[in-house]
Write a structure and sequence with these properties.
- The chain is α+β, with helices and mostly antiparallel strands and 84 residues long.
- It has one domain.
- 36% of the residues lie in helices and 24% in strands.
- The chain has helices spanning 2-5, 40-53, 56-59, 66-73, and strands at residues 10-16, 27-33, 78-83.
- A three-stranded antiparallel sheet has the order 1-2-3, with no helix packed on it.
- Helix 2 packs across helix 4 (66-73).
Length: 84
């Protein structure tokens, strides 16, 4: 997680070991972001780091590809990650 937030003002809000309403336990983390990417170029680079750290965000998320995921990061004050 340190690599994900390096150079970005952020604070960990929550890290959990299980998410309710799922058939199996998962782990999740939420980060409050003070300075999210403001250009699509920055966001695509950050999205690639997110994918390396937590591919479930793209593979099981609500975005069809990395570029679409990057668009969600633009000016976003909250980043969420989860692992099955």
């Amino acid at each position: 997680m340190k690599d994900i937030v390096q150079g970005i003002s952020s604070a960990r809000i929550a890290i959990t070991h299980a998410v309710l309403h799922r058939p199996r336990p998962t782990m999740s983390a939420n980060l409050s972001i003070a300075a999210a990417p403001t250009t699509i170029e920055e966001a695509v680079n950050v999205a690639a780091e997110h994918f390396a750290f937590c591919p479930d965000n793209i593979w099981q998320g609500h975005t069809p590809n990395l570029t679409a995921y990057a668009g969600r990061l633009l000016d976003s004050p909250l980043w969420s990650f989860w692992w099955d």
